[in-house]
């Protein structure tokens, strides 16, 4: 079934799990004076927008109408400007305390950190960051120990990381599940994140997105939904797309083009002109490149570093066993290019999800259906932010579990490998111990404090080489077993081995010591 593209603003009341993600454009980041330069940064000047389109008293009610009108189950927000209370702390502004919604925001210490930074750079002590809202009549936080995986074991104490030290102004999240009578009872416990990724570094973006997958794994789930301003088109050949894993075989030309774009080497692409800030959830702090740098073609060393980054991103996907797909939205930001007007569009906002847990039903159109907005840029009289929202509806899918017989057979295979390897290691130990006795007899009495006699040195070398060879054989045997598993078998093996060694990949590397 092909997902349906529907007009932006279509109410998200068609059943299933619905999500809206929106970068609100914090008022602090509209034409502020940067204390480092004494002027407004080009990306924050909004030279294509008129005063009315940038007026917070005009934009805020329009944003609120869109949020309320969506009726989304999940609302992922970026660039929320938090209110400062009488106690000196920061809290979600009153206008975003939507009736019927629970909320997750960054920890107070993180909000204070970004407020201090904004005070230094923009002369305003204002905290700006992400927020995650969910409808309390449909969703609730999954309690520690809830059966979160598709047929697997849940995290316990580690799940608290989602609500504590793992949160930041760029990433807030929690594990949610359907509530009884809410219509989402079939939803597997789902790790949900609202993210605002770095605007200038693909390496940082990969690290930030990888963190979401690693936190989900620690919380005991492979079912993930990540939405937000990711500050990248995620093109084929990029490291971010390698992390998502849905690009197929990227060509050498695509890899080189994405490398050039990320390094601001492509004069024709104006890459980076539509990006804001340093990506620390603070679009007014620091700026993207004002134009192309150097040659249009990456050097051999740059391409090699890019390939290594792509490979490391793919390893995270393999190690966490979290599979992702991207909702096929298009452009969400329209602004001048690096060399000035006219406005052009960038696809910077995305929704990523686990396709084995969620089936995409429909999603909102973006700038591909609003050429007028591309031409005049964002914000404008019809669009109250410099980003369009992205939204989608998903049908929760039942868990994919191995049958009892298949699970027992897989457990027996793993146990059989371990038993054979323990026996092989013990046999080698006995053999080498006997050989040492012979070597010691040939060597005679060793001189105290001197070099061991040559027969004993030769034996030690022989033993080390034999142990290395056997460990390599054991590792290969384990890897062959894991490679031959189906997706369901691999998930079960990860669950089976998680508490003991950290999963199937770790099990392959931890041959008998």
Note down, in words, how this protein is organized.
There is one protein chain. The protein is of the alpha+beta class and 513 residues long. The chain has helices at residues 42-45, 51-54, 56-70, 108-122, 202-219, 239-244, 252-262, 300-320, 371-376, 404-443, 454-483, 487-501, 504-509, and strands at residues 4-6, 17-23, 74-81, 83-84, 90-91, 101-104, 128-135, 139-141, 171-178, 190-196, 224-229, 325-326, 333-337, 340-346, 349-353, 358-364, 390-396. The strands form four sheets. The protein has a seven-stranded mixed β-sheet with strand order 1-16-17-2-3-7-6. Strands 8-9-10-11-15-12 form a six-stranded mixed β-sheet, covered by helices on one side. A hairpin with a 2-residue loop joins strand 13 and strand 14 (340-346). The two termini are 50 Å apart. Mean pLDDT is 87; it is low at 148-160, 268-275 and 277-294.
Features:
513 residues; alpha+beta; seven-stranded mixed β-sheet; 37% helix; 18% strand; elongated
Class from secondary-structure proportions: alpha+beta
Which residue ranges are poorly predicted, with pLDDT under 50 across at least 5 consecutive positions? 148-160, 268-275, 277-294
Largest sheet: 7 strands, mixed
Anisotropy-based shape: elongated
Number of β-strand runs: 17
Q: How far is it from the N-terminal to the C-terminal residue, by CA? A: 50 Å
Mean pLDDT: 87
Radius of gyration: 27 Å
**How much β-strand is present in the residues?**
15-25%
Order of helices and strands: EEHHHEEEEHEEEEHEHHHEEEEEHEHHHH
Query: Fraction of residues in helices?
Result: 25-40%
> What topology, given as strand order, has the largest sheet?
1-16-17-2-3-7-6
Tally of contiguous helical segments: 13
């Amino acid at each position: 079934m092909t997902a349906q593209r529907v007009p932006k603003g279509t109410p998200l009341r068609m059943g299933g799990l619905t999500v809206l993600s929106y970068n609100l454009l914090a008022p602090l980041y509209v034409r502020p004076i940067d204390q480092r330069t004494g002027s407004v940064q080009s990306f924050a000047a909004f030279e294509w927008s008129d005063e009315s389109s940038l007026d917070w008293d005009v934009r805020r009610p329009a944003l609120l109408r869109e949020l309320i009108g969506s009726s989304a189950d999940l609302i992922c927000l970026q660039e929320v400007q938090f209110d400062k209370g009488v106690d000196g702390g920061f809290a979600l502004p009153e206008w975003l305390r939507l009736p019927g919604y629970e909320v997750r925001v960054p920890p107070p210490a993180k909000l204070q950190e970004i407020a201090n930074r904004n005070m230094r750079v923009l002369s305003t002590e204002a905290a700006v960051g992400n927020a995650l809202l969910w409808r309390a009549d449909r969703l609730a936080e999954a309690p520690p120990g809830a059966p979160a995986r598709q047929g697997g074991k849940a995290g316990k104490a580690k799940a608290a990381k989602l609500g504590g030290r793992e949160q930041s102004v760029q990433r807030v999240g929690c594990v949610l599940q359907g509530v009884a009578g809410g219509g989402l009872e079939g939803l597997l416990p789902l790790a949900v994140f609202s993210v605002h990724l770095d605007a200038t570094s693909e390496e940082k973006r990969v690290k930030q997105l990888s963190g979401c997958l690693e936190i989900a794994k620690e919380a005991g789930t492979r079912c993930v939904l990540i939405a937000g301003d990711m500050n990248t088109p995620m093109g084929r050949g990029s490291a971010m797309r390698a992390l998502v894993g849905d690009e197929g075989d990227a060509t050498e030309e695509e890899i080189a083009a994405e490398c050039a774009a990320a390094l601001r080497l492509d004069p024709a692409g104006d890459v980076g002109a539509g990006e804001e800030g340093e990506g620390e959830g603070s679009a007014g702090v620091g700026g993207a490149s004002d134009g192309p740098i150097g040659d249009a073609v990456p050097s051999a060393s740059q391409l090699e570093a890019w390939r290594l980054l792509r490979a490391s991103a793919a390893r995270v996907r393999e190690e966490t066993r979290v599979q992702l797909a991207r909702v096929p939205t298009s452009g969400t930001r329209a602004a001048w290019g690096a060399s000035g007007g006219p406005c052009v569009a960038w696809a910077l906002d995305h929704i990523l999800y686990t396709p084995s847990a969620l089936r995409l039903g429909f999603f909102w159109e973006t700038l591909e259906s609003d050429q007028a907005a591309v031409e005049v840029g964002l914000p404008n009289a019809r669009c109250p932010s410099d980003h369009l929202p992205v939204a989608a509806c998903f049908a929760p899918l039942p868990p994919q579990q191995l049958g009892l017989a298949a699970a027992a057979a897989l457990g027996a295979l793993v146990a059989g490998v371990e038993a054979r390897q323990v026996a092989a290691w013990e046999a080698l130990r006995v053999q080498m111990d006997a050989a040492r006795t012979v070597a010691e007899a040939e060597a005679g009495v060793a001189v105290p404090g001197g070099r061991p006699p040559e027969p004993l040195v030769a034996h030690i070398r022989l033993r080390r080489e034999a142990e290395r060879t056997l460990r390599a054989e054991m590792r290969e045997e384990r890897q062959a077993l894991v490679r031959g598993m189906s997706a369901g078998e691999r998930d079960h093996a990860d669950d089976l081995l998680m508490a003991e060694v950290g999963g199937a990949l770790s099990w392959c590397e931890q041959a008998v010591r």
